[in-house]
Amino acid sequence: MPKKYEVTPVSGPIQGTVKPPGSKSITNRALIVAALAEGTTHLTGVLDSQDTQVMIESLNRLGIRVDHDRETCSIKVAGCGGKIPRHEASLWLENSGTSIRFLTALCAVGEGEFVLDGNTRMRQRPIQDLVNSLKQLGVDADCAEETGCPPVCVKAHGLPGGETSIAGNVSSQYLSALLMVAPAAQSSITITIQGEMVSKPYLDITLGVMAQFGVTIDRVQESVWKIQPQTYQRPVAYDIEPDASAASYFFAAAAITGGRVTVDGLNQDALQGDINFIRVLEDMGCEIKRERNSITVQGKPLHGIDVDMNDISDTAQTLAAVALFAEGTTTIRNVAHIRHKETDRLYAIATEIKRMGIQVEETEDSVTIHPGPIQPATIETYDDHRMAMSFALVGLKVPGMVIADPDCTIKTYPEFFTDLERLCGQSS
Length: 428
Hints:
alpha/beta, UDP-n-acetylglucosamine1-carboxyvinyl-transferase, Chain, 2 domains, four-stranded mixed beta sheet, globular, RNA3'P_cycl/enolpyr_Trfase_a/b, cytoplasm, amino-acid biosynthesis, 3-phosphoshikimate 1-carboxyvinyltransferase activity, EPSP_synthase_CS
């Protein structure tokens, strides 16, 4: 990709069909669980992106053989049966939050010393809560620079088990990490969630992946989970559904242009909570057609809404782009935790919308957007793939919209701009 990408406006409503790549959330969870399982697991429909590549490389560094066939979007994982083969490894995770959090917990299952680190932004992203939870279980783990962020050092002697607690208000990935490795512990683990859990649908993904590998969890109370030692059993095959967060951009493209876009491979019962972004668009005025293996969004005149996006916060930026074309204000609220993502997403949303000459109000956990005439602008991405993909949609209707650093989309969707151009080309 060039250093900057100018979006070409469409001449009319977009009409077409697209199938996004496999879900990052499911791919990285399936890789962790398959690594702990007995036997070789065959994953199909996997995402090939920076986030999954650093996960695969790290598993190989831990001595768990992962063979990735990019041509067929498939992976074979030779499971370690709950025993990490290597006793020492340094893992580099770039800015992949799922990877560093899931692997920190995975390393606690092993025997030896493991260091996990990432790029500059990763060293600003919190992980102390997960480290504290592992410590409560008897794991020798620390944030090496005492910042509460990576690098993390784990001196492992197996995962003893016991009781632990985890904060729920920063990231659901902490609980997901503990849940996935708990079956490999030496004794049962009881986890108590402190405070309100953010991004709850991602826990459903975790539980769904674990169930596919034959592991069950006892939910003692609403905020208390108990996991007995048990062995993951490889499924006959595991096919990963398309990424619902990525699909949101194409649904939004239909909404913004008044077009009609079908996303293949997803339905309302998808494992990923972000599929519920279509309900937000429906509330704004779009028509939704739900079928067994596809979802179609028909754009209609849009009106602003006030919406709690806590459960589907990865689509908050997508909604911000759509809100610019609605009649009336839109408020995206209860998303304070997205300040700890690839960038401070609330600040980034507000700053870039102001750059377009639009009035926006930012609070600690919300943004309110007041649509008006949009000025052409170069949108800064903050090395955040979702900023690039979301705000590129504005350029479908507004000439002169430029995306700085479009290559940041390699994190989860390397072919995004190619697929967007192909979709727009179907209408011409």
